[in-house]
Amino acid sequence: MSTDAEYYFNTKTGEVEEGKPSSWTHRMGPYPTREEAAHALERAEQRNETWDGQDAAQPGAFDDEDD
């Protein structure tokens, strides 16, 4: 097995794939290990929660100033 392998999480099937066998529209990654790819959705959810908290801490930071 190559050490240069890249793993992707397929959002359509819920499976981890080595390489790019599926459409880019259903892939998250690349990740260096199968384990990291398997937790792609959890990682994305954690990041979203962090960013949502940062947005809430900065009221008006993303309001459209042209309105």
Overview features:
67 residues; alpha+beta; three-stranded antiparallel sheet; 2 helices; 3 strands; 34% helix; 18% strand; SPOR domain-containing protein
What is the subunit arrangement here? single chain
Percent of residues in helices: 25-40%
Residue share in β-strands: 15-25%
Secondary-structure class: alpha+beta
Protein name: SPOR domain-containing protein
Organism: Luteimicrobium xylanilyticum
Describe this structure in words.
By secondary structure, this protein is an alpha+beta fold. The chain has a domain at 16-50. It has helices at 34-38, 40-57; strands spanning 7-10, 16-18, 27-31. It has a three-stranded antiparallel sheet. A hairpin with a 5-residue loop joins β1 (7-10) and β2. It starts with 6 loop residues before the first strand and ends in a 10-residue tail after the last helix. The model has no long low-confidence stretch (mean pLDDT 87).
Summarize the SSE layout with pairings.
Elements lengths: L6 E4 L5 E3 L8 E5 L2 H5 L1 H18 L10
Antiparallel strand pairs: 1-2, 1-3
Protein name: SPOR domain-containing protein
Entry summary:
By secondary structure, the protein is an alpha+beta fold. The protein has helices at 34-38, 40-57; strands at residues 7-10, 16-18, 27-31.
